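Repro:
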Amino acid sequence: MDKHISIKRTVITSYLSSMLIILISIHVVIIVVFLNWENRRIKSEINKTSLIVHKELQMVKHLDKNSAIKLINKKIAEFAITQGSQPSLHINLIYENIFFSTESNDSIHDYNKELGKFQYVLNNKNALIIKNLLLKFGDQKVYLQIYSDSDEVKNDTIALMNSLFFSSIFIIMISLGVVRKIDKIIQSPIHEITKTVKKINRHDLSERITIINQNNELGKLSIVINEMIDRLDISFKSQNKFISNASHELRTPLAVIKGYADLLNAGAKSDPVMVDRGIAEILTEVSNMENLLKKLLFLARKENKMLKNNIVPFEISSLIKELMEKQQLIDKDHNYKIIRNKISILNIDKDLILQALRELLKNSSKYTLENREISIDSFHRKKYHYIVIKDQGKGIPKENLKHVFERFYIQDESRNRQKNSFGLGLSTVKDIVELHGGNIYIESEFNKGTTITIELTKPS
């Protein structure tokens, strides 16, 4: 429960943090754009006002000093009145060292500095935009200073920031509601998955997660979990079947060994015939158990990824020739034939490939009548090398073909027990081929024979 809450809080915190960062970034951009726009607007109004002032004072050049002072004083008063409907600008004039201003309490700001250029001046913690001009009317000079009223910009900026602040709170509240709704939608199927998975154990693998939408991430996760459960179910069933079969197979040779040991211990060891027979049977049963344990060890190493492949370049034709010669010696009841044995160097583990081919030949001899032919054909085509083993045995029914490579699968359990089969042979062969990056195929026709093809990639 704590983990669930932690994840939920993490999601909400991350979402809100991202939202705040985005909102702050947007607000900064808006304020910067607004201030830039205000700056341009004020500069434009200053330029317009300077043109108006220049035009209004054109008659100064026709007046004497006293008349000019009266005119300037009158015009400044008129400008002060009209500023009520104009952008908040202030005008200062210097004529004959006399100061005129639209604001009675204003002071002059270096009126002869940076003439004709905009200046940014800090005055009582207020940022002002100032432009100084020199107007000439004949021999008369008038210094003109126009500057902005920072209170208007400041008030507009504060109003904008307040609007952005309250709108952000509104957006965050709505977003919080939305993210809670989304979290609920996401968490609901997760709870369902958790609830279903808790019901699953090795004694009951029948439960499956209900898939609502297989196209989203949770749907795909549910499919993967269901497939995993299917594999576990098959694995447990196979293991249970194998344990049942193996226990039966081990019980029989152990009983035979114990029986002969008891018989010899009871006095039969004085009979040479019984001794020889007992030893032979014991050795046979030990060999059967050794074969079973060897296959189990291979499977254990493979599934625990402990199997070390000594894969090196090896010429395959010599291996096949040697294999068929030995097979003919140990099995004189069948005719072994090599159709083709093309020279080809492959990257293989010699011992594992030899084990796989021996298993296939042994399987073929097991189900092929005496004096029938078992052949092997080894050839390459394009980038692949093929090894084809064909027999004239009893074949496999079509409905069973798809199961022959499954672990612990036994087609005819009663007959295979007698033949010391544990359903691991073809499964082991398939594992060996796949360890080499190859493929294995099987074709069979009932009562006519079986063909198994191994496909291995040739090194480039």
